[in-house]
## 1
Amino acid sequence: MSDSLALSLSGVSKSFDKTAILKGINLDVRKGEFISLLGPSGCGKTTTLNLIAGFSKPDAGDILISGRRVNDMPSHHRHLGMVFQGHALFPHMNCFDNVAFGLRMRKAADSEIRSRVGEALELVRLSGMEKRFPRELSGGQQQRVGLARALAVKPEILLLDEPLSNLDAKLRKAMQSELRAIHTKIRTTMVYVTHDQEEALTLSNRIAVMNDGRLEQLDTPEGIYLQPRTRFVADFIGSSNFLRGTVIECRPGSVVAKLETGENAIVRTDKNLPAGSEIQLGVRSDRILVLSADAPISQGALSGKVLDRVFAGSQFQILVEVASGQRISVHLNEAPSANVVPGASVRLEIAPSNWMILQ
Ligand SMILES: Nc1ncnc2c1ncn2[C@@H]1O[C@H](COP(=O)(O)OP(=O)(O)O)[C@@H](O)[C@H]1O
Ligand SMILES: [Mg+2]
């Protein structure tokens, strides 16, 4: 139902200097949703946001806000809020005036301005700071004023472009949970650009993973993490390993694949993959068991040799070379047995449901 869509992009393309930057983006954002555009630097996230904001026009495709085509609508008529990189606060204005700015542009009445600014500052927990100037605020507080300024006009959609990227790790975490709390409270539709997978996973209702001007997958954080559709998504979010295989047997609910290591894997799948099909398999680093080589043989285990064992704080990271020469990274929450050391022979066990079939 288009009624429930805050934003819709269909076939949106954009080139700069004859180089295609966006290659047909389709994206539907529901009202009240927090959606992240996640992808590596240069994949087209900011370009997409600029088109939504109306700072530039698509070469092809349509952009709809609340069901209305806005391709030719100027930015200030789109009723958006923006928190962009480089959109600093006005240094010569205090907090109140910064937050009031958009309302004054809209010629709101003084009483309305006072109540909206008060509400917005309360929402970002800065009540009482009205008279402070930006230079008298910490980086995190300045970000919150920027957020209040964008929210004060009660936008239909709030666009945020890497708003936390200049903050240190701890403050970023704190701001993430504030943003979550604010979204839960006001339910404004938010489109959030980030290259930080963890940020996207923790904040979003859904994540749009972008790669080289295309949308690779649009799904919930769980869906993106547990059921990545493509190798790119599996690689970009979390840590994954990849092996090619050929289906040698098709069973109800699973297939047996001969891996490039020469070993067989049992792969749970509902897909109908006839014998002979070439498949790209992936497995998350944290979904592999490391057993010593003398453990009882089970079907679907890979033999390998440990290259490295690293304690990385919250996990142990083991690097194992398998028969094909590939290196498989394994992340364990608990210490592996003492004999899992460089040079040791081990077996890697991967449950059928932990194999991912990727495009
Ligand atoms: N105004 C522009 N003119 C020319 N090239 C641009 C312009 N804006 C962005 N690009 C190019 O488009 C690509 C995507 O940029 P951008 O959308 O900013 O990526 P992201 O935000 O995902 O890091 C980059 O290669 C960038 O150099
Ligand atoms: Mg960008």
## 2
Amino acid sequence: MTLKKALIGAFVLSWLLLLAWAFQDVRVFVRVHIAHFLGWHSGVVPEQTSEAIALHEFQPRAQLIRESTDNPQKPAFPVFEFHGHIFPGYEGNLTREMDDLHNPMFVDLALRTTTVEKFDKLREKYPDPRVLIFPGLNYDRLKEDGDPFQKMAADLEALARDRGVKGIKLWKDLGLFREYEGEIIPIDDPRLDPVWDVCVKYDLVVGIHTADPPAFFDPTDHENERFQELARRPEWSFFGEGFPSFRELLAQRDRLFKRRRDVKFVALHFGELAHDLGAARKLLEENPNVWLDTAQRIDELGRHPRAVARFFNDFQDRILYGTDGLPDRAKIEIYWRFFETDDDYFDYHPEHKPRKGFWKIHGLDLPDSVLKKLYYQNALKLLNISEAEFFRYYE
Ligand SMILES: [Zn+2]
């Protein structure tokens, strides 16, 4: 009888212990006290230890000590910013900030500048001819009667003819959610041909942003490598019904590149293929009318630096320097470090910008001949600007 009682007691006790062991606080408490009892001391403070902390609170400091740790203070060559934006509310002195960053020319991808009137207003604020304004398409026309595509083309033609713009910017809304009469306009929609015809007539370069990183098209869940970013910016997720897939968007874009060989396209953000160099290689090999820019993709590029350095060498005439935004020294020094050094394992974002995912990057250590093309020669060639003009702004 007593044996039976003892066995039941032991059984119940073992279950209770097992249950208690499920709690991390209990495990830590027991382990620490056993360690102390045995005379092995532990630095952990049980009350401050928890398995679960919020992702935004997890900011580990790497213990890696590099022999070279500083960002370059200046680029090896002056830079042509192909992917700039003057954000609304900016009050700085753009010319001075460009000079400070060795950046003689700056393309403002000005999506909201869609008419001559709006162009003039922006130009009045930024009269410096070193700031090249690339307008957007006038989608307001989609709400009007008549053929809105012809009207959009006419608005663009006025900007090219009367204001001499050298290029335009198309945003990711095209193909993803920009609608006409209740249907999403596909990127390769032939109704846009009048717009491309204007681009050919005036030799306009088309900067086109298609889709977004593929993680933005996956569920925002524990498997998503950009979970933290998408949790912070849920409006960036394009997962699910109602959105074309990542593959479909790129397929539409690539059909346009093929059908309009007469138009020069810059597939912005590395053509959204910074994570897939095989596909990027195919894109450039099959489409001689396509270039890539680096804006906001050093994070992706920097996690496979050896393959990326080979790619930059192979396509050294087809990649443009872009950083996506205003001159921001802390951010841009990281671009220089990425392109120019062989530093390992550093942050792709400055302290004042949040990370996109939990990884660090490694530098490309590009040779000077490739750097020069990337930093300014390719952009000048593409936009028909002479080196003499570029260097006139760079003393
Ligand atoms: Zn941008």
